[in-house]
Amino acid sequence: MHPKSHHRPSARLGLILSALVTVQGIGCASPSSAQQGSASQASPQQESASQGSTTQGSAPTSLGALAQLQIAATAGELRPNAAGSGWRLSPKADAAGGAPSASMRFAPADGSLLNLASYQIVKIQIRNTGPSPVTVRAKITNPDAENLSGTCQTAATLMPGARQTLDLRIMPTPEDPGFEPFAKFMKYYSLVRVRDNTVDASKIDALTVWIDEPTPDAQIEVSDVELAGTGAVGPVPFFPFVDKYGQYVHADWPGKIHSDEDFAARILEEEQERRDWPGPSEWNKYGGWATGPKLKATGNFYAAKHDGKWWLVDPEGSLFWSYGATGAGFGPDLTPISDREHWFADLPPRDGPMGKFYAEGRNVIYMYYKEREWLGYQFSLANSARKYGDNAADRLVQITAARLTSWGFNTMGAWSPAAMMASGLKPYTTVIHYGAPMVNHHQPDVFHPDWEIKVRERLERERETTAKDPMNIGYFVDNERRWGRYARFAGVSLQILEAEPTVASKIAFIDDLKAKYSTIEALNQSWGTTHASWDAMLQSREKVTFADPASPAVVVNTNMFNDCGDFGMKFGEKYFSTCRKLVKEIAPNHMYLGARLHSHIDPSLIELQAKYCEVISYNMYDATPVGRMRPYAAIDHPIMITEWGIDNDPRQSPFRATTVQVAIGAKGPRTERLAQFANDAIAHPQIVGAHFFQYRDQPLSGRPDGEALLRGFINGTDTPNFELIQVNRKITYNMYKTRSEAK
User: Which of 67, 454, 579, 726 could form a disulfide with 436 if both were Cys (CB 3.0 to 4.6 A apart)?
Assistant: First the structure.
């Protein structure tokens, strides 16, 4: 099908291919005129920017240059298609014996630049003529392109025999707004990169097509290249930069939604992909190792050591390694609209059918909206309604479970929706949050009598649901409490000393000090303090420390440190022993998984938790878990990594924390970090699972607290992340074999 009538007529690059006969001496016929697919309509920013600036109805200035295109460079083996139309590309190892590669680069024969500003899409017809799945990528570049800057890319994975049109969209570089308009709204970022994933379309030096990480038997056919659509010739304003679906306007990526009609196509594409990739063949219904060793079957999950490594064991007695994603399933992500309405294009009217996804908010902890009332929009819910209709939540239960299996996940991590947990489709973990007296925002007041009551009341709500479900791996109580880096929970005692005088744990700590020192003068002499009385110490809210203020890791007040450690251990014993007791009262057949530690934790804290937690939960945001785990080797207790993650997606967001950016693909920084962390965790003898944070992206425009991390396996349009899924499957489809053979 040809582009729709309001677009510029397409211009074939058959001239490119016929020119190769002369330049390369390849005796192949001109490409076939048959096409597949159709050009999509121009994106909102291209249509608005192009009004009054395109050369409607006239031949583009680039046509002369197109006739001069040749294959300027080839890696691998390139030969004419046997049918006489196009070329077949296959890998070939380089002369130095490196990994095989396969690419073809088209460029003008005279070294000139192409002006493609009048066009919107480069359409490339490809077919997988090899026996294995292949990932094919294509890009156009400016002469000064570096990594993502000055380049537009696209990609697709094709099963053997599959044919597809790669739509490589020409995304013009917008005006640079600088970071100042975003500084008060966004955490973690410091700049905007408008040249990433965009080009000066009037100065294109090459088109490159390649096979990503090809296997030796990989082979593709490139049969046709075509220009289509109407581009933006004039300046492109940056604002609005969020489209009606919550996506970044000025870039393109595999699976981006350009119209409501795309949602139906994405459903069909994903259903076919799940048929092609149904999941690991050696998993049982729990995701355990069906063909591996068998241990005792108890009907529930438990931890056991087998052949020198810690494992979980599923209800059927199969070895189980918990690989999951947090927040797996349907859910809202509210982004504020108030005071930045100009960020957004085509927001729906509040009284229209999509107006129900507006919501009001207040009282966030950080950034601009702290202590403000504001109006927000839930793009993820709106997009799910567009895609699946009014019963989106029900449909997504089945779809999410099937996705997880296809992508290589066997677990739903923390904060997955209740409907997902109740579905019986996947193992999951349960997080217990509760309202109770607190020392501060970060620490419960465990010596207050109401603390235990509140935890028991919250757990009681699980008695008839998760406590009877064999899919429930176990319970976390709390998340990322501030335990501190110091040995023997001494850092917790510092927090307690700075707390309100009514905090029960502070009263208990001072009572212990009274029993040891008798007089405040004796305490002052030991600690080097100047408290006027025990009551003055109780009333004091001043910050205290036993460490060198210039080097917080160095303890300089040993007496104070030892006393804080004594009470810290008393606090820790009460906390973890009580939590275990309450979990076992309500769910005696399920595991107590601890408190989801974070930051650097002293081994003495791990050793205490090993007394009470069947598995210790630990959130680790390192490049690899190996270094963090090293101090705990002597404790020899199973640890589950309950959060880890990778960087923000540089294709779907312009926001950066650093100017350094590296290329997209199997060798990109996000995919390499995903592979390194997951593979290292799978091989580690103490680690029994790793849960990726998180299943879906946060909003491009940010949560109310300023977090705007696009690192999930689906984005706000419910579209799977092409890059992450391909790499994840390579890791997890064989993870049991990988773990069992790791030394």
Answer: 454
My answer on whether omega of the bond before 631 falls inside 30° of 0, hence cis, is: no
pLDDT digits (tens, 9 = 90+) for 45-71: 333 333 222 233 233 333 333 455 677
Determine the length of the chain: 743
Rounded to whole angstroms, how far apart are CA atoms 33 and 125? 11
**What are the residues facing 153 on neighbouring strands?**
139
Quote helix, strand, coil % in the chain, to nearest 5. 30, 25, 50
- 570 pLDDT more than 80: yes
CA distances 440 to 489, 507, 541, Å, are 16, 14, 12
Tokens at 651, concatenated:
């294709």
Distance CA 593, CA 477 (A): 8
Residue of 515, 554, 519 lying closest to 533 (CA atoms) = 519
Q: How far is CA 270 from CA 167, 242, 389, in A?
A: 18, 25, 17
Question: Which of helix, strand or coil describes residue 619?
Answer: strand
Question: What's the number of CA atoms in the CB half-sphere (13 Å) around residue 667?
Answer: 9
Distance of CA 131 to the CA centre of its chain: 31
Q: Where does the pLDDT of residue 663 fall: very low under 50, low under 70, confident under 90, or very high at 90 and above? A: low
Q: Across the chain, which distance is largest between two alpha carbons, in Å?
A: 100
Alpha carbon dihedral 301, 305, 307, 309, in 10-degree steps, equals 90
Nearest C-alpha neighbor of 640 from the set 492, 481, 473: 473
How high is the pLDDT of residue 307?
Answer: 96
Q: What is the pLDDT of residues 489-543, one digit of tens each?
A: 999 999 999 999 999 999 999 999 999 999 999 999 999 999 999 999 999 999 9
CB 118 within 8 A of CB 89: no
pLDDT of res. 633: 96
- Is residue 581 very low, low, confident or very high in pLDDT (cuts 50, 70, 90)? very high
Token duo for residue 259: 């119209």
CA angle 713, 719, 720 (to 5 degrees): 35
H or E, element range at 371:
none
Query: What pTM, to 2 d.p., does this model score?
Result: 0.86
Across 682-701, b (16+ Cβ under 10 Å) vs e yields bbbbbbbbbbbbbbbbbbbb
User: Residue 204 gets which letter from DSSP?
Assistant: B
Instruction: Tell me how far the alpha carbon of residue 423 is from its chain's centroid.
Output: 24
32, pLDDT greater than 60: no
- Local structure of residue 172 (DSSP, 8 states): B
State the pLDDT at residue 49: 32
Residue spans of alpha helices (H) in 51-150: 63-66
CB atoms within 10 A of CB 720: 21
In angstroms, rounded to a whole number, what is the distance separating the alpha carbons of residues 702 and 186? 7
